[in-house]
Design goal:
Layout lengths: L1 H108 L12 H13 L12 E6 L4 E6 L2 H4 L2
Antiparallel strand pairs: 1-2
Helix pairs in contact: 1-2
């Protein structure tokens, strides 16, 4: 009987050990599941946070890009307007200068029948002085490189003296 009793005790001890092992396995498995869920939750939270920050950064970058593009567009528009104004002013100045020069030449040659009220610029005054200096009292060229052309017309006679710009500087 002793051997049956020993066998029963051994079976009981084996069952207790098995039961303790099952309990420990379940506890370890439960703790592992809790840790896995906790880590998974943290990873999900961090992923959401990173995604949110990336979206914010992308939105800020787009807003800055749009702002810069608006500034560039405004600057380009302003520059184009300034260029247009400068070109218009320059065109008006050239037109005025050409009209004044034509009037000065006509006055110098005695061809202008209408007096001009337009102001003569410093450049036109210099041209007038140069033209006047190049013509002597008898309308002969004072510059040997100058060319004199006389046109005879039954109604009018014209004499014009032309000289190169380099000769006017002398």
């Amino acid at each position: 009987m002793a051997s049956t009793q020993q066998t029963q005790e051994m079976n009981q001890q084996a069952q207790e050990i098995s039961h303790k092992a099952n309990q420990q396995t379940q506890e370890i498995s439960h703790k592992a599941n809790e840790k896995t869920q906790e880590i998974s939750h943290k990873v999900n939270e961090q992923t959401k946070e990173i995604s949110h920050k990336a979206n914010d950064a992308a939105t800020q970058a787009q807003e800055k890009s749009e702002g810069v593009m608006a500034q560039v567009s405004t600057a380009a528009s302003g520059t184009a307007q300034q260029a247009t104004q400068i070109l218009q002013q320059t065109g008006e100045q050239v037109k005025s200068l050409a009209t004044g020069a034509a009037d000065v030449v006509k006055n110098t040659l005695g061809l202008n029948t209408t007096p001009t009220d337009a102001p003569v610029s410093r450049e036109l005054a210099d041209v007038t002085a140069a033209v006047a200096d190049s013509v002597t009292p008898d309308n002969a060229p004072s510059n040997p490189d100058a060319t004199t052309t006389t046109t005879s017309n039954p109604t009018e006679s014209t004499t014009a003296t032309t000289t190169s710009p380099e000769n006017l500087k002398n």
